[in-house]
Amino acid sequence: MGNSSSFIDFTSNDYLGLARSEELFNLINAKLESKRIKKNGATGSRLLSGNSDYYEEVEAKLSEVFKGEAALIFNSGYSANLAIFSSLPQKGDTILYDELAHACIKDGARLSAAIRFSFKHNDMDDLEQKIKKAPGKIFIAIESIYSMDGDECPIHKLVPLAEKYDAIIIIDEAHSTGIHGENGSGLATSLALEKKISIRTYTFGKAMGIHGACVVGSKNLIKYLINFARPFIYTTAPSPHHVASIDCAFDYLQKNIHLQDLLKQKVNLFSMLTKELPNKIQSRSAIQAIIVEGNERIRSVASGLQKEGFDVRPILSPTVQQGSERLRICLHTYNTEDEIKHLVKSIISTNQLPQK
User: Fold this and answer.
1) Distance of alpha carbon 166 from its chain centroid, rounded?
2) Domain 257-350 class?
3) Which CATH number does 22-255 carry?
4) What's the rounded Cα separation, in Å, for the pair 47 and 21?
5) How buried is 117 (Cβ within 10 angstroms: 0-12 exposed, 13-18 middle, 19+ buried)?
6) Residue 318 preceded by cis peptide, ω within 30
7) Is the pLDDT of residue 21 over 60?
8) Under a CB-based contact definition with an 8 Å cutoff, are residues 80 and 94 in contact?
9) How far apart are CA 12 and CA 354, in angstroms?
10) What is the reported pTM?
11) How many CB atoms lie within 10 A of CB 316?
12) Could you give the CA distance from residue 139 to residue 165 in angstroms, rounded to a whole number?
């Protein structure tokens, strides 16, 4: 941990620059004024004193953005996934999750009475073999974009496989929210597959630049979570400022949707400049990873880049599997072409990483 404000940001999840937007900051404050909201906190659980008409208004708006029947706001993506996996699958059911799924998916599965198994990353053949052996109702847990490799789930292959075995897909769109889809609606909607995926989680603390999350699905799903999901029931509701931030962030993105294309330009530039690096993981997302084996070596490489003024962090084992330690580089709309070129030059030359 440490203060990195003096470095060039290549590590934060603020892909579209909304977290640093003064215009969005002012919009949020203006929204609170227009709604005449004077409360600093929610004061209690949504089921007690913590609900309001405005919260439900924003949830209705989110259901439209994400093209679902209903939406339910959570304090974070972590708590949203805990809620889903700890309450929906029942004893005798099976949760099958991608081996690279986020910790909150795995933690939620551990809290469930269902049995759980991982399948090889993005390997639909391995998944099908495990589906064939799985008892009860089958829940398949995946992410649209994976947080360490930056690669996409092959959703177009997963959907027909799930339909074949009547399995329920649960998708975490944390790293695609805002970046993909109309009005930032995520990868599944950009592929017109949202109706094929029963349960979707969207996180706002990354490209949306604020905080919180929501679960989108059928009205019955949302009613179930309200009544049975302990991470929703037994916690203080988000503050009015939190909910206004969500409301305004999507308004802001709708008016500045060009930011999606601007980010793609930065990703394409970085990909072109690093295409000869044999240890780079292929990714079309803002998350770019370069493998440097060994904790000590990756620490040294990252330290060298930080001395050059770049905020790039090492990802160590056991956070990632031993032998896959890496630089995790996040690209943003506000990274200039010169900054990206300088970073790549430093990665290749200063740290003497091999090229093909």
Assistant:
1) 26
2) alpha beta
3) 3.40.640.10
4) 33
5) middle
6) yes
7) yes
8) no
9) 26
10) 0.95
11) 16
12) 11
